[in-house]
Amino acid sequence: MKAIWKEKAIKLMLFATASTSILIVIGIFVFVGKEAGHFAVEPGLKELLGSRWIPVSFQKESFGLLPLITGSLLVTALATALTIPFGVGAAVYIAELARPTEREILKPFIEILAGIPSVVIGFFGLVVLVPLIKSVFNLSTGLTALAGAVLLALMAIPTVVSISEDAIRSVPASYKAASLALGASKMQTIWKVTVPAALPGIVAAVMLGIGRVIGETMAVMMVTGNAAVITASPFDSVRTMTATIAAEMGEVAFGSIHYRALFCVGIVLLLATFGLNIIAQKFLKKYRMG
Amino acid sequence: MRSAAAQTTICWFIRAMTYLIVFVIASIIIKILWNGVSVINWEFLTTMPRRGGSEGGILPAIIGTLSLALGTIIVALPLGMATAIYLSEYAKAGRFTRTVRLAIVTLAGVPSIVFGLFGLGLFVIFLRFGASIIAGCFTLACMILPIIIVSSEEALRAVPKSLREGSLALGATKWQTIYKNVLPYSISGMLTGSILGIGRAAGETAPILLTVAAFYLPRLPKSIFDQVMALPYHLYVLTTQHPDIEKVRPLQYGTALVLLVLVLGVNLVAIILRIHIRKKYKW
Predict the structure, then answer these.
(1) Which among A30, A80, B83, B112 is least buried, having the fewest CB atoms inside 10 angstroms?
(2) Are the C-beta atoms of A220 and A75 separated by less than 8 Å?
(3) Which A-chain residues 111-170 have CB contacts (< 8 A) with chain B?
């Protein structure tokens, strides 16, 4: 009889710990949303739609999120444009063309990159990439959206390579055999059969990579120059949403409008990554079923 | 794409792309190793920083990062393992299990700076921990929880069903079976994932920026309610906030190297452990 109670108690305890993940997610939305909610009441959400972010001013502060959102979008788009060819290319090479020993070395080596702390990558960017960009493109400063995008691409590549390679390798061998038997060349088989068959997995990999890119803070803050302007040029300095929170949170008064505005930025980030994640999971499910 | 020449060209092209990535990774590591190694000596590792970080060592930052990593794992490990045991051994397909899994995936995707905001709102302000080690540890624990859960569950699922059935058939209860016949074979796999989590926690900057890290604090913490310096934040401060960035360049390389060795070392331990397990248990 005692044993049964013990079993039940253990099961209940494990059940309770499993619920903490749900509680944390709810907690994140509540505690980030709470301050954003105060902002919605006091200056109102309309304030966020403005095109100028001037949180500290003697005349009139302005909390328009537009320059921050465009900053994040520009860096993310550039980083994605770099990540897709390199990430997918490397995945195809490792999965289909590399020799077995080469594969055993390459994949873990690229995955090391995922383990390097973002602040170290940012530091590398600052001492190597930023001067390089400055001299190659003949700019007055190398602290640009492009520098941020290159570093972000570096950080997204291991995710994309790792998941895409798994997806490509899980394409049934019979597909390839059939294609080769019909007289297609090795390259034709890879691009017309294997990669399309693995596409849902590759799309999911890219989505997860982009999710990481949007949320990255330190490396971007260190090399993009942090000017809150609306621009589409990779050679301009930009300020992303993540960098804004990290740079300004240390200086704001608790409970001020500026403080609450930063939580609004947090909510926008949270919703963006949440959305990307849900889409990625849909694609992942598709490829695991197929 | 028909001709053999075109095929070879494409093959060389993506090979070049792959090795370009490898080259960049290698150059990051070599650059920091090359410039950092000459800075590191006993004094650098074991003394307090002086004059706002322009001179002296990085001891408080090392101690800070180690205590944060330790505290984080104390919070996250039991939670993560218990959740994994529930999901792999007890959970039935249904709404609750689906919700837990959705929560884990969501947590894994939340940007680290948003974890910082959450930690600031909940632990620092609402629970009145202040900016402290404990607030930082709880925040980092929330962040690495998904890593621990996912890898622990994988380790549990790798144990063959027959081991459970054999134990149950002999009259053992479910928990006895898990405790005596499943956990012993999966515990090292569960630890591997947790070690990767520690590496992540030790290298993160954004969450601790808002919950614990001190800009310059040349003394060691006395309790878990103290602020501490931390390696990643110290590197950030030296490279972007210091009044004379060029002059402290060697200290930046030294700090970066210590951080890199710490994080990659932790990851290396996990990789070696994983290879060892694969050899030991072949079902």
Answers:
(1) A30
(2) yes
(3) 112-113, 115-124, 126-128, 154, 157, 161
- Give pLDDT < 50 ranges for chain A: 290
The CA-CA-CA angle for residues B36, A128, B112, to 5°, reads 80
Percentage of chain B lying above the pLDDT 70 cut:
99
Pairing of strands A53-54, B55-56: unpaired
CA distance linking residue B78 with residue B71, whole number of Å: 12
Distance (Å, whole) CA B43 – CA B57: 6
H or E segment at A145?
Answer: helix A145-169
From chain A residues 89-108, the ones with a CB under 8 A of any chain B CB are: 89-90, 92-94, 97-98, 106, 108
Q: Furthest-apart CA pair in chain A: how many Å?
A: 80
Tell me if chain B has a CB within 8 Å of the CB of A6.
yes
**Residue B145 to residue A21, Cβ atoms within 8 A:** yes
List the single residue in A86, A187, A276 with the smallest CB-CB distance to B10: A187
Q: Measured at the alpha carbon of residue B66, what is the angle toward residues B60 and B70, in degrees to the nearest 5? A: 140
Give the number of residues written for chain B.
283
Mean pLDDT across the stretch B227-250? 87
Q: Name beta bridge partners: B50.
A: B55
DSSP, res B224: T
pLDDT one-digit tens code per residue, B25-64: 999 999 999 999 988 888 888 888 887 777 788 899 999 9
Strand partners, B228: B213
Residue A44 has a pLDDT of 79
